[in-house]
Amino acid sequence: MFFDKQFAEMQKIANQIFENPELGYKEWKTKTLVEEFLKSKNNQIELNYFSTTGIKTYLSKDKPVTMAFIAELDAVYAPTHFCADKETGAAHNCGHFTQITTALSLYAYLIETEVYKNYDFNIAFVFVPAEEYLDLDYRENLRKEGTVTYYGGKPEAMKLGVFDDIDFGICVHAIGETFDEPTIEIGCDLAGFLYKRYHFEGKATHAGFDPFSGVNAYSISTLFNVGLGLLRQQVRDDQLVRFNPIIMNSDMSTNVIPNRVTVGTDLRTKTTAYMQETAKKLDLAAEHSAAALSGSVEIETQMGYLPFVQDEYLNTFVKKAFDKNEEITGLIDDRGGIAAAGDIGDLAFLFPCIQISYGGFTGAIHGDDFRMIDDRFVLEQFPRFVSQVFEEMNGHLDTSKFYKRNYKEYEQLIESIIK
């Protein structure tokens, strides 16, 4: 009955966050809302802060194993979404607002019932900023100021030691599809990605009087884009390869041959090895496009996020809870993987993680029409289901199936990928 009684409050919070979206490392209103809710449920709560807007709090610390339940605070840059912030362009069309309500609902349930005291593992709730890889100029300024090191919120939290005492993690995420029945998904892996910038250099001359002496950087970028289109035939389908080149900045006018154009693209793949292999092909296409038209190119490579491989062992507990649950009737467990990415992949390098996905939405995820349509499922039934997953885990976790790596090992891996 607890989640039923809490439904109206969760619905109010969901609407408030949805109508006040904020981009990563700027989630000030959302942070305040989370703080106020947690304090209202537990006046003895201790909150630890990190990375501008991140919050971590424990229910207990006395057990030998600690789980992190992770919720993402940020929105997407989508200025044409029907509920986008008119000033910032932020919109909650990836469903993160319901990750927050799920976490808050679970926290309130565990505090009021005190069932967590019977668990043989600790629970830490971690509210993380900046999962979406966007607003990069702002984040680069934060990096130059020394405020952050990483564009992504979870890698930044990893560097700060937020997850040093965590043994396994659970995230949840909206599914970008519409279903006829309450539906969850388990076992869906995510791609990883690099972020590439190609700075094409040409030579500026008068476009009418002396185009013959110029080198058109825009033409080089066009040739590069054509090359990438043809290159798609040479990449493996099973690796979920995606790249999406865009003109990032240029200073062009019609009477001057353009002499500098920057093309940016992400490069998504299922594995880091194929990521490196495909990155070399993109770089060659850029270099030879520039050479073909007598120009040059400077290449920047940044690590985006690591591929995410769901932990099969932890997902067995989700499946057991589903088999006993009579409210949620739809299960997707055979998709395998998709080319979407998230910094949960980076976190899963440190320790086992799963991401339980859930329906209840309509419209295209990251699209202009994305919204929640099954409030009762998303805000009541799904949090209740996650609490049942906790119950399945209690007393049955075999920690010999876990692994643990540290931030230094993560840092070395990233350096080896982008070198």
TrEMBL record:
It comes from Listeria fleischmannii subsp. fleischmannii. GO terms for biological process: folic acid catabolic process. One of its GO terms (molecular function) is dipeptidase activity. SUPFAM superfamilies: Bacterial exopeptidase dimerisation domain (SSF55031), Zn-dependent exopeptidases (SSF53187). Keywords: Hydrolase. GO terms for cellular component: cytoplasm. Coiled coil: none annotated. It comes from the Bacteria. InterPro entries: Bact_exopeptidase_dim_dom, Peptidase_M20, Peptidase_M20/M20A_hydrolases. It is an enzyme of class 3 (hydrolase). The lineage of its organism: Bacteria, Bacillati, Bacillota, Bacilli, Bacillales. It holds the Pfam family Peptidase_M20. Its EC number is 3.5.1.14. This is N-acyl-L-amino acid amidohydrolase.
